[in-house]
Amino acid sequence: MGGMIEVKSLAEAMAWALLTGQTPYRKRTPRPGVHAWDCWLRDQPTSLLFVERPHEGPSRLITSAQYAQVGQELLTTLPAATLGFTFHAGQAVVDDALLAAFCFREAARFPGAPDHAAALAVATARRELWAAALPSLPPARAVEAIPLPAHGFVPPARLAKFLATFTPTLAGKLDPSFDVVISLATETAGGARALVRHAQNTFFWANVQAGVIESVEPVTGRAALAALLEYGFTLEETQRARLRAVASGNEALAVVFERGFGEGRARRLVDVRAPEHTVVFCEVEARDPRFRGAVVAFLVDGAERVLGWREIGGVDGYEMLLGLEAVAPALPGPGGERPEVEARAELNAHLTEIARAVEPVLRALAAPATQADQIAAIRPRPGDAEKVFIPEVAARLGTLVQGYWDQDPPRIRVAPAQVHLAIAVAPAGMLGGSPELRAAFPRGWGELAASLLPHRTWVAWSYRAAHETRGRDLDGLVWIDDHWAWFPNLVRLLGPEH
Description:
This protein is an alpha+beta fold. The protein has 17 helices and 17 strands.
């Protein structure tokens, strides 16, 4: 542990930790006004000891330029959209926005220093946005409520036997054939405690004294899951520092992927689109691709230039993956396989292609000059109902739909300000079981899915004004072999009362 560092507040202490590249993971208060922080510095454990001595005037520890540097780095990680985030991840954003604002204010306290008013305004606006959004964000799931992966973190038989008959040996002499890596080390009285991960994502604690492993404690089941969430869903500090440097200058996302993760790599999971930007969620793997890294969300513009990014670790990172349909079985299996994540990425790419293909049709429906012709073009043809609904529903609905179109063809009224188009695409067979896809469709489509043939793809869409979350919402467009057909008001037509 280093010497005592005098700070005017805990906010200044946190700014100092970030400035020196140290990430606190445990904080203690041994006596009033004294704070001991356990930190990571480039994946090595360190300690900081602060004493609070409040005073007016500029900092005696951090310069104006250094405060501005920390504030700008924090500003880069403050998302401009709350899409997809959980409550605890959102609370962390609020805390970082407060710290960024503090840094810009402190930077301006020095004689002759710039006022940083523009950056301070952005940090304040982001804090207000996220503080207002917090009540509506979904709560992070408790570790106890998260399902275990199919393989349950049970070590393979040979490793289990080795652990059961383990005798003290030097840490450097650990049997290399077991293919393990030491992923965490924490200092203890007179020694250290290391969390060791095996290639199949199984764990054990190794208690080390004077370089000798005194004992081992196999970790399985839910305790192993907790260890993975706490220590596996984080970027390495070297990756974090590299990402700060690469992603702060409006670089293209492809460049950030190439240069931002060192020896690791990023896997693009899913895009959440808004009218003016997209949030791209990625899974970042550590140097060893058999182990998960953090979830990172990038905010990008239409040209896929990075406007900001946010690391989402621990339980929140796992909860985020669950929200993106990377459920527990998508954790690496015994052989490192990850079929569900790969299938989800392939499905997302396919649905994005369909959304791009249908966009001209939906734009034509909203334009007065082309609306009538486009509505006529997507009227269901005779026999279409039999191609998209189960037989008993098709028999009842076919005549009903044709009569509906003959007597009162659908009309679309879009306000002049509703120029932004939001599109949701889903295979019928997934609407009943996928929470993410079902949530993008109007209420009732989850129950409606049982009446649909599973292989057809349906579209719901909305014309919205800027900053609207709801607008002119429509649904019921389906692709049938070589044409689009529109079955409006399906939830009402096929509801229980009918």
